[in-house]
Amino acid sequence: MLNPSVRGQDRTRLRTQLDRVRAVLVENFNRPLTLAAIARQAKAPQASASARIRDVRSEGATIRVVAKRRGLHTYTLVGFVHGSIDYRAGGS
Predict the structure, then answer these.
(1) What string of pLDDT tens digits covers the 92 residues of the chain?
(2) Of 1, 32, 72, 90, which shows the fewest CB atoms inside 10 Å?
(3) pTM of the prediction?
(4) Candidates 1.10.3570.10, 3.40.50.970, 3.40.50.300, 1.10.10.10; CATH matching 8-86
């Protein structure tokens, strides 16, 4: 969910990034991805991808974050209901 104070072209750009990051996470459901991989697939800078991951979480997604050695984290979408689509394990 984007901040309601964002307006105009910036809102359109951020909405597009959010849609792309969400799509990457859904396409890789239950598979760990690094921030770099999410950003690359979503065609967004890493800082923007990180912010959009937070936005996806605010929509109610369950994203598991695992810290690996040397500061590398992986993100795994393990549950998400968006509209009429249920991306949870065993969902309809």
Answers:
(1) 666 666 677 878 888 999 999 999 989 988 999 999 999 999 999 999 999 999 988 888 888 888 877 778 899 988 877 666 666 655 44
(2) 90
(3) 0.79
(4) 1.10.10.10
